[in-house]
Design goal:
Length: 459
């Protein structure tokens, strides 16, 4: 069950909805990223690689393959076998958001002050936004650095390599009625690499920024930018770069008063599996509850930090209040589950951005909590859906080239088609060169061994 660390106003056992009510339908929330419109120009849009390699030439589009999300009963029952995520490597972004193969970006959790104003410091916020398509470059660079440090044996086997965010979108699609996404995939050396459709996301973000404000909104309703800032401010209040037990209180307060910035980050790269499908996933991790264990097989005590609007007192909570929050828990759970993050700490805030309370959730307990509550999503269905989809994708992406992966709002169908040749910058030139050099080295060793057999040692 959940552990109450501060007053949050969340009833631990919310009432279940009556059968057949609308509240029992899949979640209806606005996604951050919208899928590209079904036009050839969108599907053939070149991503913007950082490298100077020439873009692959466009080819006539191939046939469209479809994977239906409904009916969900196909995915009910016990979940497919899951391999616990195990960290294989990591990297950091420094204060200038430059890649560094180290753990200097790691932070540790401290309890933030209740009553803090999350709006404070908004005017000095150092906000990093991706203006170029970063592809999978940092993730792949970390895999290269890992192999350079530990040798060829450090190379993890994988059917898929992607960011955690892509798998989160796939896992949560069955219970997000308005879910939509656009991705690109390419097959290289037996592995499928998946990334976000960055050009479509950039276009959509620009369109949203130009939308006029609604005619009416709550007096305390804040702008989209301000509400985004609240999450980063909460992290600044709850994370410090040193172990809390050995950090003087005045130093902790100094860290909590520092300028809010999202430039510096730490990313964990894990190996996991869904059924027979092996995955390498990379994603940002917020902080640690304790030092990393020396045993690489031991779980890492990461913690995920989230904010949510405070709920009414338990005696005044209505079903829709619980339903709204438990739908939000779907994404919280999926994000943490995929990287093996065991704890989620939610900061409950007022509409005006005042931190009212904290609540800690055990990631593995969330599906059961929701099942006993509003039953608005099912973790086993999410896992089984993702497993079946990955298997279908392996059967669909069987040759080199760039494939679009698109789910349109309310369509209930994921469409995949080959849109051009090459890799589209999904796999970096640095990674391609590294892999080719290793293959050439192995071939040279085999050739040398065949023409110059070793002389038996004298006895």
């Amino acid at each position: 069950m959940t552990q109450q660390t501060e007053s949050s106003g969340l009833a631990l056992e919310p009432p279940s909805p009556a059968p057949g009510r609308e509240e029992n339908s899949p979640p209806r929330k606005r996604p951050r990223t919208k899928a590209p419109q079904p036009t050839a120009s969108n599907l053939l849009t070149d991503v913007v690689p950082k490298s100077t390699a020439p873009a692959p030439s466009a080819q006539p589009e191939g046939p469209t393959f479809c994977f239906s999300i409904q009916p969900l009963h196909r995915f009910k029952g016990a979940s497919a076998s899951i391999k616990r995520p195990r960290e294989v490597t990591h990297f950091s972004f420094d204060d200038n958001h430059e890649y560094a193969y180290n753990d200097l970006g790691i932070n540790y959790y401290v309890a933030p002050p209740i009553g803090a104003d999350l709006k404070e410091g908004f005017d000095t916020f150092k906000h990093h936004e991706d203006r170029q398509d970063a592809h999978l470059d940092a993730l792949l660079k970390a895999l290269i650095d890992k192999e350079k440090e530990h040798g060829e044996g450090a190379r993890p086997k994988a059917d898929f390599v992607t960011w955690r965010g892509m798998m989160t979108k796939i896992m949560t699609a069955p219970f997000d009625y308005f879910a939509e996404f656009g991705m690109f995939a390419t097959l290289y050396d037996g592995t499928i690499y998946i990334e976000e459709d960055f050009p479509s996301r950039a276009t959509e973000c620009a369109a949203e920024a130009n939308q006029p404000p609604p005619r009416y909104q709550h007096p305390d309703q804040q702008s989209r930018d301000m509400m985004t800032y609240w999450g980063y401010k909460f992290e600044t209040l709850a994370l410090i770069p040193t172990l809390p037990a050995s950090t003087p209180p005045q130093e902790i307060e100094k860290y909590q008063r520092s300028i809010v910035s999202n430039h510096a980050q730490h990313c964990s790269i894990v190996s996991t599996s869904f059924g027979p499908h092996n995955l390498i996933l990379g994603g940002e991790v917020d902080g640690l509850l304790a030092r990393k264990p020396q045993n690489p097989e031991a779980p890492v005590q990461w913690v995920e930090l989230k904010t949510a609007e405070e709920l009414p007192p338990p005696a005044h909570q209505q079903h829709r209040d619980i339903l709204k929050f438990e739908r939000k828990l779907l994404k919280f759970w999926a994000q943490s589950f995929l990287l093996g993050v065991p704890k989620i700490i939610v900061g409950f805030r007022s509409k005006a951005g005042i931190l009212r309370g904290l609540q800690t959730f055990n990631t593995h307990e969330l599906p059961g909590m929701v099942r006993r509550g509003t039953n608005c999503w099912d973790g086993n269905v999410c896992i089984n859906f993702a497993t079946e989809f990955l298997g279908w994708l392996k059967e669909t992406v069987t040759e080199e080239g760039v494939y679009s992966i698109v789910l349109r709002k309310k369509s209930g169908v994921v469409e995949v088609k080959k849109v051009k040749e090459g890799t589209g910058g999904i796999v970096s030139e640095e990674f391609l060169a590294w892999r080719k050099s290793k293959i050439q080295g192995q071939m040279a060793e085999k050739k040398g061994g065949a023409t110059n057999p070793a002389t038996p040692a004298e006895t």
